[in-house]
Amino acid sequence: MFSGIKKKLTLSFVFASIVPLLIFSSILLYTEYTVQKKQTLLLQEEKTIRVSQQIKGYFFSLEKEINFLFSITPFISSTTQVKEQFLSKLISKENQFERLTLVDKNGLELFFYDRTIPFFENKAPKQSNKTLTNQAIKENKTIYGKLYFHDKNHEPLIDVVFLIKDIKTGLLKNMLIAQVRFKKVWQIVSNTSKLDGEEAMLTNTKGLIVAHKNPSVIIKKTHIPNVNKKGFVKNRNNTWVLKSVNEFTIQNKSFNVIVQQHIYDALSLSFNTFILAMGLIILLLLQMA
Amino acid sequence: MKKLLVSILIVAGLMYFFLENKKMYTVSVLSHAKVADVSFKGFKDGLKDLGFIEGVDIDYFYAGATGNVNTLQEASQKIIEKTPDIILTLTTPAALQAKKDTLENKIPIVFAPASNPLGAGLVKSINAPGDNLTGVTFGLQEEKRLEWALKVFPKAKKIYYPYNSKDKSPVVTLNKLLNFVKNRDIEIIPDDVRSLDDIKKSLVNVPKDIDIVFISTDALVASNLKSYLEVFDQLKVPITVPHRQGVEQGAFMSYGFSLYELGYQSARIAKEILEGANPAQIPVENSEFKLSFNVKSMEKLGIQVSDDILVQAVMVR
């Protein structure tokens, strides 16, 4: 008789305490999960848009600054020495360029100024980046080339062709091919992710990472799988992340800014609630046993 | 009561399971050149900023620079006996020695710096070192530094090049510089110094008609910069050095890296390794470099440098 009462009391206890606790925990968990996921994604999206604008702004201001310098400096009529000094000053400015090559209107190299390699005057002039210079002449504007990697330090670079015209006649005289480094973009991206387990990166359309807070990832030429996929995805280390992507273009070159966070960090509140609820349930069950 | 205690213990056990178990890491340092100690300071500061507090998360073992390449082996053995999580090497010979001594145990090595790690045989490739070594290098700009020196001294004809032929790094640089001046009316005068005694002897009889002293990426010579400065300041001959610390010590100019910044940069690589990354897959990074001049040295030697050049440089006052 007593065991029957005990059984009934236990069942009553289960229904009176554990079941409501389970239902309440599930509702709380689901609510927290959806709210946190939504908030994280919103924050990530806002970050991807902000970083995209900063990167675009950087290239835009770089372009504007160089064109402005050419417009206020009598560059064409200057001596080779003055031109060299001009390029030297440009390349020293915050190490933004790997090499600056001055070419004539036919694309023949006049001289270059490189961060690491000295210029040998006795070298025969060569055709520099013919396709890109021809395109710049044809479209009569600054042109961005393909993304590529430095053969020695394996850093990403992008060629930008600037047209240098005679102030009086407006005719094309020289062109400047700037090998632009991504160090400034690396800084922009590095300053983005401050949260635990969060990382930001810039990739090309194929998912090749060109800017990341950890240069090793870039130098290794790491690809991110499913570059355009948003939400819950497996990242390059085969772990689950919550991810946001924003695609943007600089001239006709497309890039993606990705901000992603490890799911344990992105949904930490939900996980904590889950652990707490499970702990309480285990405690209650143990009390009953 | 008993049940409650058991329950609490089980829950506490579960909570402990979820808590992160912190490990105390150890880093041992190998170097033969005191000049490179600045890099170690940068390394420690870098790891501190990355959350590794000395004495709490990480311990360092460094008995100081051995002062001689020949004593590196003994120092390396002592380090390996401690089985550290990482060996930090501050010079190219130290990295070579550590590599040799870790062939079996494969203790990860971070070099900060090593010049020309590919040429010195430290790594198989820059973006995939392929062994237990990786780190930060700098050796890309030496010809460019000479180009800068010749811009400042366009009439220079004789360049004195003291170097330790036992160290691969200055030998590689010498060949590059000889190639650079091949078709120019410039002579490079190499002077092989393999020990402190050699340096002392050579400084008694330095050639008197030289225009520039080119201190290479040579740990022995760079560590004895003070001795060179004493002699060449009197002879009014400018000295160019591979890193900014040399300019801060009194050398005339540099187009090079900062050892502190290089050490700081290498801390991030060490963090990756401590967190489980394989050094074989961590690319070798390059340090940033800048032109720098020492204003006091400029005044002492009575050298005028044009503003066009100075605006591009870091001025050490």
Structure description:
The complex is a heterodimer of chains A (289) and B (317). Chain A is 46% helix and 27% strand. Chain A is of the alpha+beta class. Chain A starts with a helix and ends with a helix. Chain B is an alpha/beta fold and 317 residues long. Chain B is 41% helix and 18% strand. Chain B is elongated. The A-B interface holds A 85, 88-89, 92, 95, 114-119, 122, 152-155, 183, 214-216, 219-221, 275, 279, 282-283, 286-287, 289 and B 3-4, 6-7, 10-11, 14-15, 18, 126-128, 140-141, 143-144, 146-147, 180, 183, 268-269, 272, 281-283, 285-286, 288, 290-291, 308, 311-313.
Question: What's this, in brief?
Answer:
The complex is a heterodimer of chains A (289) and B (317). Chain A has seven helices and ten strands.
Q: What is the mean pLDDT of chain B?
A: 89
User: Alpha-carbon distance between the termini of chain B?
Assistant: 74 Å
Number of strands of chain B: 13
Strand order of the largest sheet of chain A: 2-1-5-4-3
Q: Rg of chain A from C-alpha positions?
A: 29 Å
How much of the sequence of chain B is in beta strands?
15-25%
Q: In this structure, how is the largest beta sheet of chain B organized?
A: 7 strands, mixed
Going across the major beta sheet of chain B, what is the strand order?
A: 7-6-8-9-10-12-13
Characterize the quaternary organization of these chains: heterodimer
* SSE sequence of chain B, one letter per element: HEHEHEHEEHEHEHEHHEHEHEEHHE
Low-confidence stretches of chain B: none
Helices and strands of chain A, in N-to-C order? HHEEHEEEHEEHEEEHH
Helix fraction of chain B?
40-55%
End-to-end distance of chain A: 19 Å
Largest interface: A-B, 30 and 35 residues
How many DSSP H or I helices of chain B?
A: 13
Task: Output the number of helix runs of chain A.
Answer: 7
How would you characterize the largest beta sheet of chain A?
A: 5 strands, antiparallel
